Structures are given as structure tokens and as C-alpha cells.
Amino acid sequence: MMIYKNAIKSLIWLGVCATLNLKAQEAALVNTSASPYAKLKPVGMDQVHWTEGFWANRFEVCKERMVPQLWSVYNDEHISHAYKNFEIAAGLDTGSHSGPSFHDGDYYKMLEAVASLYAVTKDPALDKKMDEVIKTITLSQREDGYIYTLSMIQQRKTGVKNQFEDRLSFEAYNIGHLMTAACVHYRATGKRNLLDVAIKATDYLYRFYKSASPTLARNAICPSHYMGVVEMYRTLGDKRYLELAKHLIDIKGQIEDGTDDNQDRIPFREQEKVMGHAVRANYLYAGVADVYAETGDTSLFNQLHKMWTDVTSHKMYITGGCGSLYDGVSPDGTSYDPKEVQNIHQAYGRDYQLPNFTAHNETCANIGNMLWNWRMLLLTGNAKFADVLELALYNSVLSGISLDGERFLYTNPLAYSDKLPFKQRWSKDRVPYIALSNCCPPNVVRTLAEVHNYFYSISDEGIWINLYGGSELKTSLPNGGTVKLKQETAYPWDGVIKVVVEEAVKDDFSLFLRIPGWADQAMIQVNGQDVNKVLKPGSYTMIRRKWKKGDVVFLKMPMEAHLMQANPLVEESRNQVAVKRGPIVYCLESSDLPRGKSIFDVAIPADMTFQTENQLIDNCPVTSLTGEAKVIDQQQNWDGVLYRKIDKGIKKTIPLRFVPYFTWGNRGHTDMTVWMPVSY
Asked: Which long-range contacts (CB under 8 A, 24 or more apart) does 293-297 make?
């Protein structure tokens, strides 16, 4: 009876919201507008528009190529069986389930990308397409709210209702992405057709977890549903959903045979190190951050900060990539007895265990790093979280998709060579469809369709500019009144940011400008006058005043290329350097070397100077770097040779070109490296 009453209350509340326009912050990608322990509130999904520059270019590709291609793939049964699975589960066709068990979740991510694109473009064709497939998804759902095409297709054949029987099943993961997609779809369109499906599924999960044993309940790998449940709570105000989210954290680790790979060998609050599957870990941390935003449970925040420090100090690549190991043995969840050794895969390793050629760095894990750091930024307003978000976005996330928007990488290594005497599991050439596991393509496309949501935030004090790119913001402040800002910049290739106030409120408010951690000697001017403040890298600078139309703010950040070195305990990068300029990590491709030279033939002078050069790679304008390096003659035959004395002959110099890491492999198959030997 209580569930029924709560459901009625939710429907009434939803009916009111459907009748009235959602407030701007309530129509945000992640709605912390009423979260008591979140410092920042995102802006509405339709309140930021790209104007020109890097992200305007990427969004145009997203609109014209990424989303249409993804829609075509997921609705073509000869490529992907994802939509056909829904049709069979709905009884609209016959046949068997095909594809991985997480295919439903892939389809929901694709739907979220379309909904996010619609939020900005208001293209009626997108709305119509979504309505058509949502009808089929609705029909595939069981009367009790359970939705999972693999089981529903089997049920139609056998009549047996099975659920959560396989500990490696992705039911909860799929439902989690359904919840998130439904909230985004509702906020973008005002329609509740997908949200109704998500309500039934969330109610089902609530009832299931009320009675499930910890052992049965842990059959929920890759916890996207932690984020999804909280977002459903924020959308509907149903306290049962927050209760469920807290319960999901509390039961994690309450089993005797948990694994590090699934982060459930040890209860979450007792974990000392980040462990296991990197996607599952980062999704878990993002979901826990959502729960903290609503509850203020300091034990959760303290644990999140411990995990964040472990990742950023010991386990994260210079590109923001996460998850160094393809496969391995859990560092800590083992014993001397070989029968008890735990396997891990696509996982975090030990501290400083960061191989380059065999780096896994799944695109989904890197996106998970963004999702986690975005939520930590919302909680705290601390720029260090925006720094990591930006690092991952420009490097290990963008690298997961080709510049034309139609081909994808599952893993993102920091080096590749055809000379490696073994074949790795995942292609190092981007492909249109990753048949074994196509989870990354819809994830990266939805991320790029949603990037504008990360650029600005609101607090009681004013507007926060988290990231930089040519854009317009039109939003309202918490105390009322409309503010419109225009950002003009060539970032990330140039460090000059111009912010023009095009509409302001009568009262004073603050602008918070993020000074990235790499930005030494930054300066700010307002209407041509220097702001006499010490601008600390890795922080926000607050400018409070009574703003008026026509006010101009300049943030000027010298953007020099630097050689970066790793902690010497990172064995595979010791005595090597990488090149970084602003937020962009660079790499060397064999296609930019003279004929007969390889990535193994180059040593970088420690005092190397760089020149910038504008370049067009597959219709994407970028800034490349050029310089002179020393040649290490490696032309001798190394077949069967493991060690050899150094040739002390005359060393030559060679011109080099470095391109942004995210562009590697877009000019054809090539060897590549981020880290290179340094010559002193």
C-alpha cells in the first residue's frame, strides 16, 4: 500500500512538472539544484550554445556525423542487434537475443545522446525518432517493471521469470543507463514516455533490493544504477529512491566471496586503495558522490577523497586515462594459495604501475573519471577536480573517437608499434563498430553531445566558468534575474579568454574564473584594468561587482609547451619525457618522421624549444608543435637480441612534429608514443 501511495504522489508531482516549465537548473544534465550538500548547481541543458572554435567544430561533427551514425548502427540488426532485441522482447518479432548482455545499456546511452542533442537543437526529427523507439522499449518491459531483453526473450520462450541469476549479468547496469537517459530525455523534451518506463524499473529495483540477500544483490556489476537512482530521486522527489541508493552502498562488501574486480571484497567505507575494473570503480565513485550530495554523509566524502588522491597520485596516466591493466592478478585480494588468487581485468594496478604500450585505459573508464570529477566539483567548487575533468576530456576521452566522428577505440594506449611481437585484444585502429563490446562508442558520443553542460555552474554567489571555449550562456541566478555571457577564445590552442557581459542583473554578483593548474603567471583584466589579485594556479578567482551590459573580462594565460616527467617509480616512463601544452598532451607519430626512422630512434633534448604551427587533421584545426631532437641510431637488427652496448658514434639531429594525442591514428595506421627518452 505504501509503494502504491508513493507512486501516486510521484505521478502527481510529475504531472505538475509536465504542466509547468522546469526551472533552468532542474533541466540540467545532473540536477543538484536542490542538493543540500552540493556547492554548485549546473545550468540548464539548453542554456549554453557553441559559437565558434574547437567545441563548435566538434559539436557540428557530433550533430552531423556522430549521432546519425550511432543511430544507424544501433537500429540496423545486421550490424547491432540492440534494437532488434527490444523488438523480440516486446513480442513484435521472433528470434533470439544477440550481442553482449549490456547491449540494452548501450542503446540507452545512444538515446541519451540523441536527447542531449535535441535539448540544444530542438530538431523535431530527433524527437520523432525517440518516440518511435520508446514505444518498443515500453512494450519490452515486464508488468512488474523488470526490463532486460536477454531474460525477457527467454521468458517468452519458456514462460519462466528469471532475474539476477548470473553474478556477471548487467541487468542493474542497463537499468541505470535507462534511468539516466530517461531523466535527460524528460528534461530535454518535457515528455514522460521514457520516464514512465524508468519509474517502473526503479520501483522494481527498490522492491528487489528490499528482500534480496547481499549475495544476490551483488549481481550488479558496473554500477551505473547508483548515479541513475539518485537522478531519479532528483527528478521525482521520491525518498524511496534515495533510500535505495544509500542501501546499495551499505551492502557493497557484505559477502564472503567478493572480488576486487567488482570492488566488493571489502566494504566501500573500509577500502584503502582503488582496485579492480576501472569503469566499475569510477562509476561507483561517481554514484557515491551523488549520494553524498543528498545526504551529507561525511564517511562517504572522506572515502571519495581518499580514492581520488590514490588515483591522481599513483594510478592515473598523464592523459587522464584510467585502468592500466588488460588482465592480471588482484594486488591485494590474494593469498599464497593459487586456488584463491583473484583475476582482474581492464583494471587499476598497483601504485605507479603504468605501462605505455599495453595501457588499457578503456574509453568508458576515462569518461567515468570525468563523471566522478564533475560531481566532486559540484560538491566542493574546488578547481582541482575541474583540472582532472579537463585533462581526461581533451586527451583520453577525445582519443576514443575519430575526428570524423564515425570510428572508435576501446583502449587508449600511450604507445603503439607494429614491432610489438604480439597482437593485443583490442584494435589500435579506430573501427565503426566494436562487435565484442561496443559500450564505448555511445558513451563517448553522449559525452560530446553533453560537453557544454560542464562549462558553467551557478552558486548563490554567482556564475562559475569551469572550462573555456567559444560559447554563449543565458541563465538565471538563484535570486532571480537573467544573465547572458559570451565567451570568445581559441582555447585550447590559445590561453586568451574574452568574456563579454551581454545582459546583467541590477544587483552585484560574482564571476568565478578557473585558473588551471598548469597556468602560471595568468592575469585578469576587467574593462582594460588589471585585477590586482594573486591568481593561484589550480583555483578559481572571484570577481565581484555590479556588472553591466558591455563589460569585458580578459583572462590571459601564457600557454607554453613543457616537457613533463613522471615519478621515477613509474618504471616504464623513467628517464623519458612527454610534451604538454595547456590542457593538451602531445604525441609523436611515425608518419611525421623521415623515411626509415621510427619512434624508437628519437631522444628529446632536455632544453628543447618548441614552435607552434596551425594544422588541419581530417578537417579539425589543431595546433601542432615542432622542434629539433637527437637521433638514436636503432637501425641495427634486434631480432633475437635482448641487450646491446650503446653506440657512441656521432649523433645527428632531426626535425620533429608533435600532434595532439587525441588526433593520433587519424592520418592512417601509424606507430605512436607519448613518452620519449630524454637527452641531457
From this structure: 293/32, 293/35, 293/36, 293/37, 293/38, 293/230, 293/375, 293/378, 293/379, 294/35, 294/36, 294/37, 294/230, 294/233, 294/234, 294/242, 294/245, 295/37, 295/242, 295/246, 296/36, 296/37, 297/246
